[in-house]
Design a protein that fits this description.
The complex is a heterotrimer of chains A (342), B (306) and C (533).
Chain A (H helix, E strand, L loop, with lengths): L1 H12 L2 H18 L3 H10 L5 H26 L7 H18 L5 H30 L3 H23 L31 H18 L1 H11 L1 H6 L4 H28 L10 H11 L4 H24 L6 H13 L11
Chain B lengths: L1 H27 L8 H19 L2 H25 L4 H22 L29 H5 L4 H19 L1 H11 L1 H6 L4 H25 L13 H11 L4 H21 L6 H27 L11
Helix pairs in contact in B: 1-6, 1-9, 1-10, 1-11, 2-3, 2-4, 2-9, 2-10, 3-4, 3-9, 6-7, 6-9, 7-9, 10-11, 10-12, 11-12
Chain C lengths: L26 E12 L2 E12 L3 E5 L6 H8 L7 E6 L2 E3 L4 H6 L2 E4 L11 H5 L6 E2 L3 E2 L1 H15 L14 H14 L4 E5 L7 H16 L3 E6 L2 H7 L2 E6 L2 E7 L5 H9 L20 E11 L5 E11 L3 E5 L6 H9 L6 E6 L2 E2 L5 H6 L2 E4 L3 H5 L6 H6 L9 E2 L2 E2 L1 H14 L16 H14 L4 E5 L7 H16 L3 E5 L3 H7 L2 E6 L2 E7 L5 H8 L8
Parallel strand pairs in C: 3-10, 3-11, 6-9, 9-10, 15-22, 15-23, 18-21, 21-22
Antiparallel strand pairs in C: 1-2, 1-4, 4-5, 7-8, 11-12, 13-14, 13-16, 16-17, 19-20, 23-24
Helix pairs in contact in C: 14-15
Classes of the chains: A mainly alpha (342), B mainly alpha (306), C alpha/beta (533).
Chain lengths: 342, 306, 533
């Protein structure tokens, strides 16, 4: 048990430097332009805790980010450079919405699991395509996931605009899901999705599966040295494909939980690039699930807090986008070449 | 008359895609999958409008766009080649930085998050009307096009000549195809990659300038709307060959120009817009499939290991 | 600088037992007392070589004798830690590969440095294209000058063919052309025949003769004795980082060279030494007419049949690259076979997957521990556990129990004397010998009925090697079948009950240990049939 705690502490420590560096960079920038940089920063990070409502919105940001980061962790641990989080997220969201608004006559007890499974399967399918192309024909997964992102976004745009559109609202927005299948809010916190509980549970579960099962060890072996994995008798190709199915499923689940628990309908622009930010969270945490939970929470604080910052000070909220860009650009860099080992 | 107007709009629509595709192609030949074309284009588009607005000079705005875009490419080069950052991650970082940075500038300096629309804006040089009417169809279609559109189509042979007819181009290809061979021939592989990124920045800057300066004279956040990725798709589809890449870009531009009109025939525009990306995946898979079939032993004793 | 843990051989001071007065000759290259350390391991201790202008000089030695290090020093890739390089009468430092070619040293590496999509001419002039109008490549000049070189040396190539469509032998000639285009006086060929088919080797030997006729000096690195005789004027043998002897080829026998290469007293005490007769059990591994072809249809394994019985160690000798790797991978299930069948303990496993074969009782120690043997970023405990979770009982209710993993790793670390190891440490932090112990500990833990073990002591010091030998022999004594694949003859002799030799994809012969000697096996390794020996 002590070991487990230590391991988790280590995982959280890893991204700390990168986060502090970003915050410092941002503070320099804010100091240069704002009259009250401390106030701006306080709001950016801590206005999330000012009211229950703010806190609820912050939790709603953290949920999809965590899930996407977990998906990315599965794929990266299996050695697949999956940048398709955004597409998997949208696929899950749209599939859930379609099921939800189409089979409204079904009882909620049936419709809810159906919508949930549809979302997960849609995401998993999107993870399966690049995995199979990679394993069978060595097609570069970066390209396929990148291209699939755009394809899915266009496809959902078509569905949202032409097929399941709510004619009474403005923009590409679907009809609202029947209230009976909405995910209940967190007890005692109106507006906060209970999806966050699922995300936290899944983060722990991911850690157990990856680091405390033989299956996880085999997956990581395939990801770190494929030829080694094959030589010691690990069915590596199968592990890689399964990892991508899970990765896509997590992305899909993120979209599903957004629709069921937060948006209650599909909106074409519901994601402020959750896919890429989720990838960022995973990489910042050195692809460790517990660490990713921490980075996702941090990012949710920033994204949500930026709105409060913009209201209370005159610092634009796009500061966060700028900082994210800087962070992503910098985070895989190494300051010095690795020292030689004898 | 309709053929001329269609051709003219295809030329205009495909110019930024051709440029973006060439920008991705030149780095692909140096073995870099450049996902940052989109971001570099956006920076070019923004700086063109910002500088044009401030100085009132079209050449200055144009030049500034190129410089800014090349600067972005070299930022990427420094991060990846000097500080060994991952190309994909850092490239996506460039895109985020460009989007976030331009939005931040809009909100902070111009106080208009919706976009930057200068009241008056200097015009680029356009091919004068009637000057080419002696060429049937093509002449009138070129008339009225801006200099950037002309440059875009001149860039195709220029890139081909550079890659296949100059020593530097050959060294760049060698650096991309086999680093070991290039290095042992005394070629500085890192420099070649940085050079390919710089050229990529130049071409992306041209594309960005064309988007914002040519007809519109304003900048919108996200105004590149995925053209950088269409270019990347065209390059991947064309396997890094300049002429095939350019042809694919024009085709994709053609579908883009056609997209809205097709809606009349009950084909949703989104499906037309999807084509480049589907084509890229199918093209890559087909190329691998051919290699796979060719390399398969005469008789498979058993299925591939799982 | 103290020479660490030698093997007890007394270095014979120097060179030339030939009696020819060396000083009269025009020497293009003089290497004196060259030494090179990697970490605290001496790759070269003391190398003296004199190369005369216009001769073909072979440098001959076993794997790991220091040949490649020596070549890399001459090519400017490594800097020596001691000694001098004298070229054309002047002491020189070769700072980098470019400096080497400026000094007139042309290297032809074992791994070609060619760009496949470019033509022969473009490859020859890569990095120094002639220019037209200061801007464009002068393709015509490139082609013309390449054709000139091709014609002068009779290479029979078309300068405009893309390298992609050339055979391996032709590609090698392009590499030689590159060196010649730089006006290399001294050409160094590093194991040039390793990648060639026998007819291509003959062609290469002709090419070399032609080069010598036109006044080039050639330094030829090899460990194949037959080539030494075929190609060279003189030969220098190096062993364990020291130059042992130099002979005129005409007056020396293959046996003499072989003796100097191997050294008499490097044999470790092994099974072969104890000559008590053994009883072996039933066949555990059986191959019948196994053939494997590569993507281009070339035969990598040609109709191989043999069996390994319980309690028996069968050694497969051979020069690297004659199909041994493919043989191991075919048996283990990593590559498909196109013909024949494989049996394990009486069951047909021809189409079984790797995991199925391992379930059926197969263990595998691959030739390259970093490539296939370990995942260097994962911990020692995880590398040890990789295929042992069930057998070692490391799980409970489907979850891995960390304390058991740690205990298991500690037990194995102690049992196999893995030095400087902690269970949670990345295995990549260990030295080569200790990494190899981890691989062997993992594979032996399952006590497989058949152990396929490749190059078990490559790059290891004597102490670690002895330890591993003891483990292999103990497995055989417990009644396990062992297939040992090694290019170290001493290893094969130390361990094997029967010895087979691979040559260009064929298993030439299978001899009882008592009937095999170095001369016979050495001849077989060079492709001679047993009748010829």
């Amino acid at each position: 048990m002590r070991e487990l705690v230590l391991d988790c502490l280590r995982a959280v420590r890893a991204p700390l430097t990168a986060i502090l560096l970003t915050l410092a960079l941002g503070f320099v920038l804010v100091s240069a332009i704002a009259d009250d940089p401390v106030r701006a920063y306080r709001d950016l990070l801590f206005a999330n805790f000012d009211s229950l409502g703010n806190f609820a919105l912050f939790l709603n940001r953290a949920t999809p980010l965590t899930l996407i980061a977990l998906g990315v962790i599965f794929s990266f641990r299996a050695g697949i450079f999956n940048v398709g989080g955004e597409g998997q997220l949208y696929a899950g969201a749209i599939a859930t919405t379609i099921v939800g608004v189409t089979f409204t006559s079904l009882p909620a007890l049936l419709l809810f699991p159906l919508a949930l499974i549809a979302g997960i399967l849609a995401g998993a399918f999107l993870g399966w395509i690049p995995a199979v192309l990679k394993v069978r024909f060595a097609v570069d997964e970066v390209v396929t996931t990148l291209m699939l992102n755009i394809i899915v976004l266009l496809f959902t745009s078509y569905l949202a605009n032409q097929v399941i559109r709510d004619p009474t609202s403005y923009g590409a927005v679907s009809r609202v899901l029947p209230e009976a299948i909405w995910l209940p809010a967190l007890p005692g916190m109106r507006g906060a999705t209970s999806g966050i509980v699922i995300a936290v549970v899944l983060a722990c579960l991911t850690w157990v599966v990856l680091f405390r099962t033989e299956w996880g060890a085999q997956l990581r072996a395939a990801g770190t040295n494929l030829r080694f994995a094959r030589s010691v008798g690990i069915p590596a190709d199968r592990r890689i494909i399964t990892a991508m199915l899970i990765a896509g499923g997590f992305g899909g689940l993120a979209g599903t939980l957004y629709v069921l628990g937060i948006g209650h309908r599909f909106e074409q622009n519901f994601s402020p690039d959750y896919g890429l930010v989720g990838l960022t969270c995973a990489l910042l945490a050195r692809i460790h699930p517990i660490g990713a939970l921490a980075t996702a929470i941090f990012y949710a604080m920033m994204i949500n807090g930026s709105a409060y910052m913009q209201i209370s000070t005159d610092v634009p909220r796009s500061l966060v986008d700028l900082l994210t860009g800087l962070l992503v650009l910098l985070m895989t860099a190494r300051l010095a070449r690795k020292g030689q080992r004898a | 008359m309709t053929a001329v107007s269609l051709l003219s709009s295809v030329l205009e629509q495909s110019a930024p895609i051709v440029l973006a595709a060439l920008a991705a192609m030149i780095t692909l030949r140096a073995n870099i999958l450049n996902v940052a074309v989109e971001g570099m284009m956006l920076v070019g588009a923004f700086v063109a409008i910002a500088v044009g607005d401030a100085t009132g000079s079209a050449p200055l705005a144009f030049l500034a766009a190129l410089v800014a875009s090349i600067a972005m490419s070299q930022l990427l080069a420094v991060m990846t080649l000097r500080f060994s950052a991952d190309f994909i991650v850092a490239g996506l970082g460039i895109n985020l930085l460009a989007a976030g940075g331009s939005l931040f500038a809009l909100e902070w300096f111009y106080r208009s998050p919706g976009g930057l629309r200068p009241v008056s804006f200097p015009d680029l040089w356009h091919v004068p009307a009637g000057s080419l009417s002696f060429i049937p169809v093509l002449g009138p279609a070129i008339e009225g096009q801006s200099i950037v559109v002309l440059l875009a189509f001149l860039a195709v042979p220029a890139c081909a000549v550079f890659l296949y007819r100059t020593p530097t181009g050959a060294y760049l290809r060698a650096a991309g195809e086999d680093e070991h061979a290039a290095r042992s021939a005394g070629i500085k592989v890192g420099q070649m990659k940085a050079l390919s990124l710089a050229i990529s920045g130049l071409l992306a800057g041209l594309a960005g300038a064309q988007l914002s300066m040519d007809k519109l004279h304003f900048f919108l956040p996200d105004m590149t709307s995925g053209r950088g990725f269409i270019g990347l798709a065209a390059t991947l589809f064309g396997g890094g060959q300049p002429w095939i890449t350019a042809a694919a870009s024009v085709l994709f531009g053609f579908f883009g120009a056609l997209g809205d009109r097709l809606q009349a025939f009950a084909i949703p525009s989104q499906f037309v817009l999807m084509l480049p990306y589907v084509a890229a995946i199918v093209g890559l898979t087909a190329a691998r499939w051919r290699a796979h079939v060719r390399n398969r032993p005469a008789r498979m004793a058993r299925p591939k290991e799982t | 600088m103290s020479a660490p843990g030698g093997d007890g051989t007394v270095p014979s001071p120097l060179a030339s037992r030939s009696g020819i007065a060396v000083d009269d000759q025009d020497e293009i290259l003089k290497l004196s007392a060259i030494a090179k350390m990697f970490g605290d391991k001496a790759a070269l201790k003391h190398v003296d070589i004199r190369v005369r202008r216009g001769e073909v000089h072979v440098i001959c030695g076993e794997n790991g004798a220091g040949k490649s290090t020596l070549m890399n020093i001459l090519a400017g890739i490594h800097q020596p830690d001691g000694g001098t390089i004298n070229l054309n009468g002047k002491d020189v430092t070769i700072a980098d590969p470019i400096a080497a070619s400026r000094l007139g040293i042309g290297m032809v590496h074992q791994h070609f440095a060619l760009v496949p999509s470019m033509s022969v001419a473009e490859n020859v002039f890569l990095g120094r294209h002639p220019r037209r109008l200061g801007l464009f490549s002068d393709r015509r000049a490139m082609v013309e000058r390449t054709r000139e070189l091709i014609d002068r040396y009779g290479f029979g190539l078309d300068p405009e063919t893309p390298v992609r469509s050339l055979s391996v032998g032709q590609r090698q000639r392009v590499e030689i052309l590159k060196a010649l285009a730089f006006d290399a006086e001294l050409l160094i060929l590093d194991e040039p025949t390793a990648v060639l088919t026998p007819p291509e080797v003959d062609e290469l030997i002709e090419v070399i003769a032609g080069l010598r006729q036109r006044g080039r000096t050639i330094l030829f690195i090899t460990h194949k004795l037959r080539e030494v005789k075929a190609v060279s004027d003189r030969v220098t043998v190096i062993r364990h980082g020291e130059s042992i002897s130099t002979y005129p080829t005409a007056v020396v026998s293959e046996a003499d060279i072989a003796r100097d290469m191997v050294g008499r007293n490097v044999f470790l005490v092994g099974r072969g030494a104890q000559s008590k007769p053994r009883d072996f059990g039933a066949p555990v591994l059986g191959l019948k007419n196994v053939s494997v072809t590569d993507a281009s249809g070339r035969l990598l394994l040609n109709d191989i049949s043999f069996a390994v019985r319980a309690g028996e160690i069968v050694g497969i000798a051979g020069v690297d690259g004659n199909g041994q790797t493919e043989l191991a991978e075919a048996i283990v299930g990593l590559i498909d076979i196109q013909a024949g069948s494989i049996e394990l303990a009486g069951k047909d496993i021809t189409t079984a997957t790797v995991p199925m074969r391992q379930q059926a009782g197969m263990g595998f120690v691959p030739e390259d521990r970093l490539d296939r043997g370990l995942s260097v970023t994962m911990s020692i405990a995880e590398n040890l556990a990789a295929s042992n979770y069930q057998r070692a009982g490391l799980e409970s209710h489907g979850l891995v129990v960390m304390s058991r993993c740690t205990a298991f790793a500690e037990e194995k670390i102690a049992e196999f004397d893995v030095r400087g190891a902690r269970p949670a440490m990345p295995v990549g932090w260990l030295s080569g010998g200790n990494m190899q112990k981890v691989v062997i500990a993992r594979e032996l833990n399952r006590d497989p009925a058949l152990l396929v073990i490749c190059q078990p002591t490559r790059g290891l010091d004597i102490g670690a090697a002895e330890f591993i030998y003891a483990r292999i022999m103990a497995a055989a004594d417990r009644g396990r079948a062992v297939l040992l694949i090694s290019s170290e003859l001493s290893e094969i002799f130390a361990l094997s009950d029967r010895i087979g030799v691979m040559y260009s994809g064929q298993l030439l012969d299978m001899l009882e240990r008592s009937r095999a000697d170095e001369v016979t096996i050495g001849a077989l390794m060079n492709g001679a049939r047993i009748e010829a020996a």
